[in-house]
């Protein structure tokens, strides 16, 4: 295996593992985000603090930390390295070694990765998410639907290699949403806006 591909995965992992949600909530005096709501470090859980601007900042920064290594890897080592950097960033966000492998669920990271790898596919992902979110008022269902359909659009718009990389990220996203999937099947998943803010 080309050593540069290993570098791409490592750079992606290191960038992806930066816990912006944790940093921002602490800086804002809101405590440890891991003690709030679902306990994960992503934007959806940051929103449970009641601070929408902080949640939006987390979303943008989490997307950015995935897009950056993808763009760097593409510039130096090519498209295959860029795809591996995206997977590395996803792994870093979901399983950061410095946080005991307990990170976020990967939605923002997948958005950032797809926008950097192929902006049309990234925009389609966002479009599907928004459509389902507005129609069903469930963030998890919107994310799962967007992730499930993303490999199909990646194949149609770009090629089978991007479809394969996207499928890996989608699978990881499903694993991270396993508790949400259980609640969806039981009909107990919370709807957007129905959850109480953290005290």
Automatic annotation (TrEMBL):
<keyword id="KW-1208">Phospholipid metabolism</keyword>
<dbReference type="InterPro" id="IPR003811">
    <property type="entry name" value="G3P_acylTferase_PlsY"/>
</dbReference>
<feature type="transmembrane region" description="Helical">
    <location>
        <begin position="6"/>
        <end position="24"/>
    </location>
</feature>
<keyword id="KW-0812">Transmembrane</keyword>
<feature type="transmembrane region" description="Helical">
    <location>
        <begin position="152"/>
        <end position="175"/>
    </location>
</feature>
<comment type="subunit">
    <text>Probably interacts with PlsX.</text>
</comment>
<keyword id="KW-0472">Membrane</keyword>
<keyword id="KW-1133">Transmembrane helix</keyword>
<dbReference type="GO" id="GO:0004366">
    <property type="term" value="F:glycerol-3-phosphate O-acyltransferase activity"/>
</dbReference>
<dbReference type="Pfam" id="PF02660">
    <property type="entry name" value="G3P_acyltransf"/>
</dbReference>
<feature type="transmembrane region" description="Helical">
    <location>
        <begin position="108"/>
        <end position="132"/>
    </location>
</feature>
<comment type="pathway">
    <text>Lipid metabolism; phospholipid metabolism.</text>
</comment>
<keyword id="KW-0594">Phospholipid biosynthesis</keyword>
<comment type="similarity">
    <text>Belongs to the PlsY family.</text>
</comment>
<keyword id="KW-0443">Lipid metabolism</keyword>
<feature type="transmembrane region" description="Helical">
    <location>
        <begin position="83"/>
        <end position="101"/>
    </location>
</feature>
<protein>
    <recommendedName>
        <fullName>Glycerol-3-phosphate acyltransferase</fullName>
        <ecNumber>2.3.1.275</ecNumber>
    </recommendedName>
</protein>
<keyword id="KW-0012">Acyltransferase</keyword>
<keyword id="KW-0444">Lipid biosynthesis</keyword>
<comment type="function">
    <text>Catalyzes the transfer of an acyl group from acyl-phosphate (acyl-PO(4)) to glycerol-3-phosphate (G3P) to form lysophosphatidic acid (LPA). This enzyme utilizes acyl-phosphate as fatty acyl donor, but not acyl-CoA or acyl-ACP.</text>
</comment>
<keyword id="KW-0808">Transferase</keyword>
<keyword id="KW-1003">Cell membrane</keyword>
<feature type="transmembrane region" description="Helical">
    <location>
        <begin position="53"/>
        <end position="77"/>
    </location>
</feature>
